[in-house]
Amino acid sequence: MIRSRLAFASVFVIAMLVWSPQIGAQNDNQKQAKRAERAKKAAGLPQVIFDESVNPSTADLTYGIGGKEHSPDLTGIFTFLQEDMEQSQPKFDVKDAQGNTWRIKLGEEVKSETAATHLVWAMGYYVDTDYYAEQLKVEGLTKLRRGEKLVEDGGVVRSVRLELKSKEVKKLGTWSWYDNPFVGTKEFNGLRVMMALINNWDSTSINNSIYEVDGQRRYAVTDLGASFGKTGDSISRSKSNMEDYVKSKFIEKTTPEYVDFVLHSRPFLPTIVNVPNYIHRTKVTDVATHIPPADAKWIGQRLAQLSDQQIRDCFQSAGYSPEQVEGYSKALEKRIAELNAL
Known about the structure:
- The chain is of the alpha+beta class.
- The protein has one domain.
- 35% of the residues lie in helices and 19% in strands.
């Protein structure tokens, strides 16, 4: 009897190991199929990457693209829905008392992503609706496969990013930095400069989304967590590290024809055995090179419209300490001055 039970258990475990990847693959295929169908229906919609209505001088960098009106009620009830296993950072979905769904991110990217999202939006670019919270209590929070050590008794999680998941926003797919409808425009080149400005060493296509919103196909940068640290290989780079950001170089080279900014992501040399990843990561450098000086100055002039208080609001709203807010703000202001001195 015992042997029979053990045999059954062994077969069950093996079956689960075989079926689980298949189930995951089926779910991914279903998602891709839905997105392909949405993209087909939205093919005729106007394509945009820049919102001319955003005025940097009046942009609210405390609340970002969603504004105060869409900010979460942190005193209300949040109920656990499901864990999200896509990409690398621990995340899960919750629903608030108003029926809104939020994607909660934990870990080292939450502050840098919030600050970067608010800043990039203030320049007129499309991003996710992100907010930061020092603490959140989640009812019904089950044991997480990733990030469980960041959860306290009673479902309390600290230092989190909340991303609003609106039903009105439909994801159609991703877009490439090297092949898109806006290549060569000052608006697109300005976005390339912004990636170097914030040291986003994870500027890869998988982190760019095409959304259908209000009758438009919006090209957005939707994962900016690997920012405000140091760019470099997989050993030297960092994120959300004020000291590294302050010390890092911004402009690599200037000529009458173009400007090269520093944006490295090439993996540590021994990892070249994974050739596709090595090539993919190395190519990130191209995102911030050969920018026409006029386009770099254009985005520099938009950045120069931000007040000292707006810049500090950006980092304050992301949960950084007063010392970090001051350090980041001065470093960012220095980079803006460099742009406008080209």
